[in-house]
Amino acid sequence: MNKKECGWKNLDESKRVEIFAFGDSYIQFLKEVKTEREASKKIIEKLSQNGFKDIDEVSMLNVGDKVYFNNRGKSVFAAVIGSNSILDGVNIIGAHIDSPRLDLKPNPIYEDAKLALAKTHYYGGIKKYQWTTIPLAMHGVIVKPNKEKIEINIGEDLQDPIFTITDILPHLAQRQYEKKIGEAIDGESLNLLVGSIPNEETDSVKENILKILNEKYGIDEIDFCSSEIEIVPAFQPRDLGLDRSMVASYGQDDRVCAYALLEAIINAKVEKMTSVAIFADKEEIGSYGNTGMQSDMFDCFMHKLLDKMSLNVPSALAKVYSNSKMLSADVGAGIDPNYQDVSEVNNSSYIGYGVELNKYTGSRGKSGASDANAEFVAYVRGIFENRNIKYQVSELGKVDIGGGGTIAYILANKGMDVIDCGVPVISMHSPYEVISKYDLYSAYLAYVAFLESYEKVTY
Ligand code: MN
Ligand code: MN
């Protein structure tokens, strides 16, 4: 019988210590990284400290070389060169570093009812009611035509001010209560409260706020049109539970897999197969644009690898792809004790029970699914079983009640074998997502094992 067993049981003390230490450094990473730009920067910093070089500064690639490619400061690709020919395929793991949030609109600041506010446009699949009446921080960049780039980070330091989106008091919420939950908060009412003191002469609160922005950051109102400012929860990542077994934080989809992958590509003992790590942007809105995985930028990176090994003959890239194997490192849905009815228990994950494999994603009759071949699933579970890594094989939820996708299909379309493999999350896409430290560590071990693997999938 295939019995599910909690990972925390029968754990020896040294392992427990390792899991908690890994959890601590993960929490530190989450504290410093709340946007794809901040994640890219941190990832490149850590890669550089561990011997990875900018691929554009390397002319030839040899066995053991480590390189990264910085895609516009918003996504990163990295590789460690193995001894086998790259034409025999590579081992790829791909996570994403963007998370659901609110973006400031290009013309954000306005005044209404004697208060200054900022307009937002939400990014990714959020439940809008979860984003009102919580402390919010502002992260991002404002770029001027003279190329000056002003970095904004307001609301993380305890001395900083924060922002919030107001909501109706219950006393007057009669009409709001009658609405469906998905319609209770209008997208155009997700307006950030940013000030209340009027200008002495003109009585304008907006003018006073613009004056502060000008004095503090040297920006004018027009400069917002060339900015990317993300509004994210100002909560700190924290240990969760009396046993400290879990992590509560914003942005764990998908920075939990991104962190496990970063540690894996740094620490894996790559010998035969070339290892590739993808830290993608724009997954939450369909992977579009030149920092998303639908673009040709990943091909561009792979061409650079082939060029620098003098192997870039016609059709070389197609050959690499058709021989490659990939884990799409994205989160899954952990069973929520309060809402178990959306999960089919035989095919769902419990947090703390190990890394999750999703044979397929998609929705309603596997529409839009990237469905891993049985032969490849066997190959991957074989790798995990050889190292006693706990895994659980799941679906996102019950049939016909929803669904979702990852970057898996995009890489599968290029011809490689792909399966989704990540950490189960509770309260996914909320301002405060929950994971188990055991699953985070299992994902790390699973990614190391996969990167170190070198056998062929037998069909
Ligand atoms: Mn995700
Ligand atoms: Mn997501």
Rg, rounded, reads 23 Å
Distance between the termini: 27 Å
Q: Please tell me the CATH architecture of the largest domain by its name.
A: 3-Layer(aba) Sandwich
- What level of helicity do the residues show? 25-40%
- Classified by CATH, the class of the largest domain is Alpha Beta
The chain-level mean pLDDT equals 97
Bound molecules: manganese (II) ion
Task: Write up this protein.
The chain has about 450 residues and is α/β, with parallel strands linked by helices. The chain has 2 domains: about 15-100 and about 250-450, Zn peptidases (Aminopeptidase, 3-Layer(aba) Sandwich), CATH 3.40.630.10; about 100-235, Aminopeptidase i, Domain 2. Helix content is about 25%, strand content about 25%. The chain contains 10 helices and 22 strands. It has a 9-stranded mixed beta sheet with strand order 1-2-3-13-4-14-20-16-18, sandwiched between helices. A 6-stranded antiparallel beta sheet has the order 8-7-10-5-6-9. The longest helix has 20 residues, at about 15-30. It is globular, with a radius of gyration of 23 Å. It starts with 12 loop residues before the first helix and ends in a 7-residue tail after the last helix. About 45% of the residues are buried. The mean pLDDT is about 95. The structure holds manganese (II) ion (2 copies).
Task: Write a concise synopsis of the structure shown.
The chain has 459 residues and is of the alpha/beta class.
